Amino acid sequence: MCGILGLISPAPVAERLVYGLTGLQHRGQDAAGVVTFDGRFHVRKGRGLVAEVFREDADRADLLGRVGLGHTRYATQGSTTLLDAQPLTMNYPFGLSMIHNGNVTNFEALRSELQNRQHRVIETSNDLELILYTLAEEIEAEAAATPGGFRALRPEALFAAVRRLRQKVDGAYAVLVVIADKGLLAFRDAFGIRPLMMASGQAEGGPEHAFASETSVFDMLGLGPARALAAEEIVLVDMDGVVHTDGGSETPARAQAFCSFEHIYFAREDASFGGWRVAAARARMGHLLADAVRARGLRPDVVIDVPSSAYFAASGLAEGLGVPYRRGLAKNNHVGRSFIVPSAIDRARVVRQKLNPIPEVIAGRKVAVVDDSIVRGTTSRHIIRILREAGAEAVYMVSAAPPLKHPCPYGIDIARRAELVAAEHSVEEVEAQLGADALIYPDLAAFKALFGGEGHCFACFDGHYPTAVTEEVRRSIEREQVASGRVG
């Protein structure tokens, strides 16, 4: 999971890119970067938060140009070193600079192909480099077949290059590319697993167009209305601000499989995806949880949330049960999201720093504590313990998401089945491991029905992957995690 932002405007874009990236900080805290283009590429990137990488005015001063990209990184492929930070840029045989959100699942085979047949020197462990070189190869083929070469390429040739790329690159990805002297190119994987939104507005001198992981950024930038790129759609905004689009497919359309975890955890509550407001989706999850709590014969005295992604689910649960909602856990907002911290030891430390109970809300009460999901159980065990220490009579652990039983190869860093506490254990066994008086999950079928039962990926719950995910693919992803140092 990462945050991506692209802008093309008649005015300089650097300030607005950095400003917009702050609205995507929740999607990645490992690194941040910006590239702009004004006849040459200007890149600034570093490890840490946007405000740390772009602390001084001088950090933005050299980012010249009216087209550019911004990225916040959470490493689900490759290491967390600066070398793997995005954007990645190449200048020969033509200029490309690229960012992405997602995971390439056939990266070992693709890397071998690029190294052995194309003789590419792969410098990073970031799968974005494989997408970059694959697109470069396909554009080069189009240029070779076009009288006048690269400079004569029309948008249709770039669309054809992306269609061929999709035949080679498996997995989930939303990609933004600045192509020197051509414009800003945007595309998604064939199933639309990772989000990519577009919005436009009027700047001084003409239209401004933007692409981003979430619509919240467009609100910050004063752009809209927003729309989602279709799963196989390709969009090019040329250097004159003209928008060119392509359906992206020469085969029958595939069923979209948008990641349901965007609604559960990743996205900000004010984001909207194709008409689905995240806050409203989470509130509906809470009402669904009320049915599950009643089915267990439980009646909490108070409902609290694990701040802040579980707030709307918790308020929906309280509303559905007719019991009060209270803020029972104080959050240190200067500590990052524990799920996207790269190691188990660091996650435990972050949880201890981040959350502290409010005893007056907890003591002597049966407490239903709602979290967006239960992945590894690290956070849940700590929360249950500190709630008991604060005097809770009983602790009911409630997950807005169904049990996570299957690894995700698409950009959620749960690629190892061994990390998933619910993968090999029953609800009762997980309940005992966590130390809860009760553990509540929503019914999976009812959860799917919240989203119409289709158009979304639920693979981490039911194991039905939209792309071919073989055992060898799973093993290769686990090998990459170990090699990159993200797991021990």
Write the layout of secondary structure elements.
Blueprint: E1 3-8, H1 14-21, E2 31-37, E3 41-47, H2 50-53, H3 58-61, E4 67-73, E5 88-90, E6 96-104, H4 107-116, H5 128-144, H6 155-168, E7 171-179, E8 183-188, E9 197-203, E10 206-212, H7 216-221, E11 226-228, E12 234-238, E13 243-246, E14 258-259, H8 261-266, E15 272-273, E16 276-277, H9 278-295, E17 302-305, H10 311-321, E18 329-331, H11 344-354, E19 355-357, H12 359-362, E20 366-371, H13 378-389, E21 394-399, H14 427-434, E22 438-440, H15 444-449, E23 456-457, H16 459-462, H17 471-484
Parallel strand pairs: 14-23, 17-20, 20-21, 21-22
Antiparallel strand pairs: 1-4, 1-10, 2-3, 2-4, 5-6, 6-7, 7-8, 8-12, 9-10, 9-11, 12-13, 15-16, 18-19
Describe it for me?
This protein has 488 residues and is α+β, with helices and mostly antiparallel strands. 32% of the residues lie in helices and 23% in strands. The protein is built from 17 helices and 23 strands. It has helices at 14-21, 50-53, 58-61, 107-116, 128-144, 155-168, 216-221, 261-266, 278-295, 311-321, 344-354, 359-362, 378-389, 427-434, 444-449, 459-462, 471-484; strands at residues 3-8, 31-37, 41-47, 67-73, 88-90, 96-104, 171-179, 183-188, 197-203, 206-212, 226-228, 234-238, 243-246, 258-259, 272-273, 276-277, 302-305, 329-331, 355-357, 366-371, 394-399, 438-440, 456-457. Strands 3-2-4-1-10-9-11 form a seven-stranded antiparallel beta sheet. The chain has a six-stranded antiparallel beta sheet with strand order 5-6-7-8-12-13, with helices on one face. Strands 17-20-21-22 form a four-stranded parallel beta sheet, sandwiched between helices.
